[in-house]
Amino acid sequence: MEKLFQLKKAGSTVKQEIVAGITTFMTLAYILAVNPDILCATGMDKGAVFTATILASVVGILLMAFLANLPFAMAPGMGLNAFFAYTVVLGMGYTWQTALAAVFLEGIIFIILTALNIREAIVNSIPISIKHAISVGIGLFIALIGLKNAGIVVSNDNTMVSLGNLDDPAVWISFAGLLIISVLLVLKIKGAILTGMVAATLLGIPFHITTVPQDGIISLPPSLGPTFMKFDFNSLLEPDILVVLFTFLFVDMFDTVGTLIGVSSKANMLDEKGNVPRAKQALFADAFGTTVGALFGTSTVTTYVESAAGVSEGGRTGLTALVVAIMFLLALFFAPVFLMIPGAATAPALVIVGMLMISPISKIDLENYIDAIPVFLTIIMMPLTFSISEGIVFGILSYVLIRILSGKFKKMSPVLIILAVLFILKFILS
After folding, report:
1. Cβ(88)–Cβ(102) below 8 Å
2. Which conformational region is residue 68 in: left (phi greater than 0), alpha (psi within -120 to 50 degrees), or beta?
């Protein structure tokens, strides 16, 4: 263990790393119920997505453990799975097979960009205010999906949206789950989201909202057959797919980079220049996890901010990540438990995750209109168009145009201008 993970150098112990790994798993295990629930809306097999979610996560986490020796966990990203299901498939009309092909291609591109160090040029070209706004917008988008799935918010021909049917037991179960998670978060109880989901699932049993498995809670993993390598590359030459690819790549980049920096800072792991140690290896883990995940049948894999929970328990090396991977593998044999969790129980988790994602808004100067207006458009267009990509397009396009027309474009990155031109062409050609 010492030779593999250099525990003494990191100031850690085997026991400390094991506790940290279990803690991290408990805080992000909700993804095992939420990801299949989101992706099955596209017509994908829920059991296959469950297995794909675990295997893709394990591949990424093991690479993070042994290649980067960092205590970070990986799984299909929240926001990216919603973009996959609700924007690309249900919104733009592509098949889930085409969406998987786009994720696979994005992973390959990410590997190449990481190897050639081009990633920095793209990441650095996007204004920090827009980066923060994307996180906020995705947070609102995810929360809206949660409220919709719970039946708390419903469509309305006159007002677009309105309050749902409060006589529906599923609505009150979702409210109860939301309240339980909220209280546990306030009390700083670890695994708050997962605990709230379990409580809501149990509450749903007497109302027949939760279907209890008849054959026990332990089983062989569901087959990957329905989703394994089910790619459709025929639509990848269409103009809109370029925006889809960019969005997958863009959000994945900033999810990973932001998480790596934020969690490493919390653990005092940044070097004297403020850089994350072995960041390139961590990005390779992310890219390979995404590529393999697409092969198995799930959306983009990214580094999870919930890793901070394990870091707060003393996780400092890849041993923490290895423990998380082992926990994921054990969960493979408890598919009936995770797949019985109804939408009424996963909805509160989506709302809370959405809330957690809007925290970067405190870092945005809303008094500076040249930044505030593109930021606002980025944020508001995501939930109102039900599309993460449209929010990014409107944000970057407005940022470039406002600066050019106001004569404040001297410091603007050429890469950003190229992106704006591509987005304008998208509107003309679509």
Report:
1. yes
2. alpha
pLDDT digits (tens, 9 = 90+) for 313-330: 778 898 999 999 999 999
Q: What does the alpha-carbon distance between residue 196 and residue 181 come to, in Å, rounded to a whole number? A: 5
**Domain residue ranges in the chain:** 2-220+232-355+365-429
Q: 30, 76, 71, 82: which is closest to 57 by C-alpha? A: 76
Q: How wide is the angle at C-alpha 354 spanned by C-alphas 181 and 59, nearest 5°?
A: 90
- Cα separations (Å) of 161 from 153, 157, 350? 7, 8, 18
Q: Within 13 Å and on the Cβ side, how many CA atoms surround 258?
A: 20
**Rounded to an integer, what distance in angstroms lies between the CA atom of residue 37 and that of residue 182?**
22
192-203 and 343-357 are packed helices; what angle lies between their axes, rounded to 10 degrees?
150
Which residues, including other chains, have CB under 8 Å from residue 131's CB and lie 6 or more apart? 254, 258, 360
> Using CA atoms, how far apart are residues 76 and 255, in angstroms rounded to an integer?
11
pLDDT in tens, 161-208: 899 899 999 999 999 999 999 999 999 887 788 788 889 999 999 999
**CB of 69 closer than 8 Å to CB of 113:** no
Q: What is the pLDDT of residues 116-158, one digit of tens each?
A: 877 656 656 778 788 788 778 878 887 888 898 889 999 888 8
**What is the distance between the alpha carbons of residues 86 and 294, in angstroms, rounded to a whole number?**
17
Q: Which residues of 381-406 are buried (b: 16+ CB within 10 A; e: fewer)?
A: bbbebbbbbbbbbbbbbbbbebbeee
Q: Which residue has tokens 């290895």?
A: 322
Closest CA to 411 of 127, 123, 130: 127
Higher-confidence residue: 36 or 128? 36
CB 52 within 8 Å of CB 292: no
3-state secondary structure of 314: coil
pTM of the model: 0.74
Instruction: List phi, psi (to 5°) of 12.
Output: -130, 175
